[in-house]
Amino acid sequence: MKDGVQAAVENYVKGVSENDPEIVASAFREDAYLWGFLGDTEVVAMPVSEFLKVVSKAPDPSQWIADYTHRIRSIEVSGDTAIAVLEESGYLGADFTNYFTLVNQGGQWKIASKTFNLTGGTLPVPPEG
Asked: For a designed S-S bond to 27, which of 11, 39, 47, 108 qualifies (C-beta 3.0 to 4.6 A apart)?
C-alpha cells in the first residue's frame, strides 16, 4: 500500500518539476484543496484547479531544476487513507515541507489535500497580468 502512496507523491513531484498541470492533476482528487504559508502570516488557500494554474505559469524548470531535491520523509497508511510528508529543497529557489492526505480511490491513491510551509529561500515574484 505504501508503494501506491509513494507513486502518487512522486507523480506530484514529476508534475511540479516539469510545470505540467496534467501530471499534477493526475495525482490529486478533483475536489482536493491546498492550504499553507509562503513566508508570511497569512494563510494561502486554494482548490487544486487554481494550483494547476500556478504550476502552468511557474518559471521554466531549466532556471531552477539543477538545485532541486526532494525526499519523502514519511508515509503512514491506515486502510484506504494515508498521510505523506514531502520535503523539497530548491523548488523555484525555495524550500518546503508538504503534508499530503491521500485516499484510495477506485484502487488508485489520490491526494485529497496538501498543507505546506515555506521553510527557506524565497519564491520568485510572479509576473503581472
From this structure: 11
In terms of Cα–Cα distance, which of 120, 11, 3, 5 is closest to 67? 120
Residue 17 CB partners (closer than 8 Å, separation 6+): 61, 65, 68, 91
Three-state SS at 105: strand
User: Of the candidates 114, 43, 58, 113, which has an alpha carbon nearest to the alpha carbon of residue 91?
Assistant: 58
126 pLDDT band (50/70/90 cuts)? Answer: low
Backbone φ and ψ for 85, nearest 5 degrees, come out as: -115, 125
Q: What number of helices (H) and strands (E) belong to the chain?
A: 3, 6
Distance CA 48, CA 61 (A): 21
Q: Which helix (H) or strand (E) holds 101?
A: strand 94-105
Query: Cβ neighbours of residue 22 under 8 Å, at least 6 residues apart?
Result: 15
The answer to whether the predicted template modeling score (pTM) of the entire model surpasses 0.85 is yes
CA angle 49, 55, 56 (to 5 degrees): 95
